[in-house]
Amino acid sequence: MEVLSKENIDIEKIRAQFPILQKSINGKPLVYFDSGATSQKPIQVIDAINAYYKNQNSNIHRGVHTLSSEITVAYENARTTIQKYINAKRAHEIIFTSGTTDSINLVAHSFGKKYITAGDEIIISAMEHHSNILPWQLLCEEKNAVLKIIPVSESGELLLDEYKKLLNAKTKLVAATHVSNTLGTINPVKKIIEMAHQFNAAVLIDGAQAIPHTKVDVQNIDADFYCFSGHKAYGPTGVGILYGKEKWLNEMPPYKVGGGTIKTVSFSKTVYADLPLKFEAGTPHIAGGIGLAAAINYINAIGIENINSHEHEILTYATERLLSINGLKIIGNAKNKAGVISFVVNDLHPLDIGTILDKYGIAVRTGHHCTQPLMEHYCVPGTVRVSLAVYNTKEEIDSLIEALNKAIKMLQ
Ligand code: PMP
C-alpha cells in the first residue's frame, strides 16, 4: 500500500472542520487525546445527521410514500458505502448494529447457539477489550465449552507460537482484536486467520480501533466476521457494523427478532427475511447509518493512508518526547503500532495525572481501559492513555509534555 506523505493533508483545514476543537476547557484550548474512547465529529457528519432530521425524517423499508422511499435508498446507500470501505463482497454481508459490543454479542449468541457444543474450544487473546471477552466467557459457561487465551509478550505482541499450540480440531472460533485499545499493537490478523482456518475454525476480528486508522480489506484478510463502531471513526454513537461472510450469516439463526426481520408471520410458523434484514430487528438508528456513511466519506476524502501516515508521525514524536520524562514507562512497545500510547509514571496514580492534565485542557483516558486482564499481566492498576486521531498535532504533544511535567512535580 502506498503511504502518502503528510504534505498531502492540511491539518489546520481539517481541524477547522471539527467544531468542538474550537472549545476551551478550564480556560485552555481543548487538546483531545481520547479518540480511542470516541473520536470527535467533523461538520460533514453533524450536517448529515441534521439534514436527516430536518428534511428526510421517516421510517425505512416500510413505506410507499416519498420520504420513506428516499430514506430507504439513502440507508441502503450507506450500507454500500461501508461495504466498499472494507471491501466486502456483498452489501448484505454488512449488518447494522448498535456498535462493536452489539456485533460481538450477535455472533456469540447466534453462532454460539448453532455451532458451539460441550467440549468445543474458543480462543481469544490476552489483550482483548472486555467486549471481546465477556460474550465468549458467558457462551463457554452456558455450553460447557473451553475458553483459551493467546498470551502476550512483554512488549505487547501476541505470541503466535503459543497460539499455534492452542489450535486443534476442537477449536470452533477465534476472536482477536485488530488493534489493541490499550497497547496500540496492530495484530497480524491475516496470519491469525490463516492459522485458524487450517483447523476450520471461524475468526472474528474486533476492528473497533482499526477502522479509523488503517486500511481494512475483509476479503484480503479472509475474516469470517469483522466488527466496528461508528463513533470511533468520526461517526455517531449508537451505530456499528457486523461484517459476516454470507455463508455464516445465512446459516446462523436470528439473534434479536421482531419487526423487519421476517417474510411472513403466523402463530404456527414464521419465515425469516433474507440477509441483511434477518439480523436487523426493529427500527434501526437511521440517522446513525446516514452519519456513519458521511464519516466514511469523510475518511475517504482525506485518504486513510494519509490519516495513517499523519498519525504515525505524531505517534513517533509523542513516543520520543514522553520517553524523555524521568520515570515514565510506556506499556506496549510493539513494532507495529497504531496511535495509542499507554504509560505509567513511577508509582503515581494514573487518575491523579489525568485529573491534573484536565486542568490544562488536556483530555486523556485513565484506568484499565476495559482490559483488566492486561493490567494484571503488566502488574499496573491502570495507565494514562493518549490516543490519536487525524486532527492531533505536534504542538498538542508539546502542551501534553509541559502539563505532564507540571503534574509530576505537583504529585511527587
Ligand atoms: N473493542 C475495542 C478494541 C474497543 O476499543 C472498544 C471501545 N473502547 C470496544 C471493543 C467496544 O466498543 P463499543 O463500546 O463502541 O461497543
Written account of the structure:
Strands 4-10-9-8-7-5-6 form a 7-stranded mixed β-sheet, sandwiched between helices. The relative contact order is 0.17. It is 40% helix and 17% strand. With 412 residues, it is α/β, with parallel strands linked by helices. The protein has 14 helices and 17 strands. The protein has helices at 11-16, 43-56, 66-85, 100-115, 134-143, 160-166, 189-197, 218-221, 246-251, 286-302, 304-323, 350-359, 372-377, 394-411, and strands at residues 24-25, 28-29, 31-32, 94-97, 121-125, 146-150, 171-177, 202-206, 225-229, 240-244, 262-265, 270-272, 328-331, 340-345, 362-363, 365-367, 383-387. A hairpin with a 2-residue loop joins strand 1 (24-25) and strand 2. The chain folds into 2 domains: 11-42 and 303-411, Aspartate Aminotransferase, domain 1; 47-300, Aspartate Aminotransferase, domain 2. Bound molecules: 4'-deoxy-4'-aminopyridoxal-5'-phosphate (PMP). 4'-deoxy-4'-aminopyridoxal-5'-phosphate binds at residues 99-101, 129, 131-132, 177, 181, 206, 208-209, 229, 370.
State the main characteristics.
single chain, 412 residues, alpha/beta, Aspartate Aminotransferase, domain 1, Aspartate Aminotransferase, domain 2, 2 domains, 7-stranded mixed beta sheet, 4-stranded antiparallel beta sheet, disordered N terminus, binds 4'-deoxy-4'-aminopyridoxal-5'-phosphate
Write the topology of this structure.
Elements: H1 11-16, E1 24-25, E2 28-29, E3 31-32, H2 43-56, H3 66-85, E4 94-97, H4 100-115, E5 121-125, H5 134-143, E6 146-150, H6 160-166, E7 171-177, H7 189-197, E8 202-206, H8 218-221, E9 225-229, E10 240-244, H9 246-251, E11 262-265, E12 270-272, H10 286-302, H11 304-323, E13 328-331, E14 340-345, H12 350-359, E15 362-363, E16 365-367, H13 372-377, E17 383-387, H14 394-411
Parallel strand pairs: 3-15, 5-6, 5-7, 7-8, 8-9
Antiparallel strand pairs: 1-2, 4-10, 9-10, 11-12, 13-14, 14-17, 16-17
Helix pairs in contact: 2-10, 3-10, 4-5, 11-14, 12-14
The structure holds 4'-deoxy-4'-aminopyridoxal-5'-phosphate (PMP).
